Amino acid sequence: MVSATGELAIIPFDESMDKLPRPMKRERVQPFGTWLHKRVSQLVRTAEANLREAQ
Questions:
Q1: What angle do CA 26, 31, 36 make, to 5 degrees?
Q2: Looking at per-residue confidence, does 50 or 26 come out higher?
Q3: Between the CA of residue 50 and those of 18, 37, 54, 55, what are the distances in Å?
Q4: Average pLDDT, whole number, for the chain?
Q5: Which of 21, 29, 41, 43 has the greatest number of C-beta atoms within 10 Å?
């Protein structure tokens, strides 16, 4: 799937799945950099909370 701005969708799957995932809607495709920033921010918050808890 390609968004209106030309971004390609990355759809995760693995060999244990019986069927391929359903295609996503065009408007849900977001730039990879946006997805990566959100994911890294989430991981940093988790790591910070774990570090605070360990102190």
A1: 130
A2: 50
A3: 36, 20, 6, 9
A4: 85
A5: 29
Q: Is it the case that residue 31 has pLDDT exceeding 80? A: yes
> 6's torsion region: left (phi>0), alpha (psi -120 to 50) or beta?
left
* pTM (two decimals): 0.57
> What is d(CA 12, CA 23) in angstroms, rounded to the nearest whole number?
11
Cα→Cα distances 35→5, 9, 16, 38, 40, Å: 15, 11, 25, 5, 9
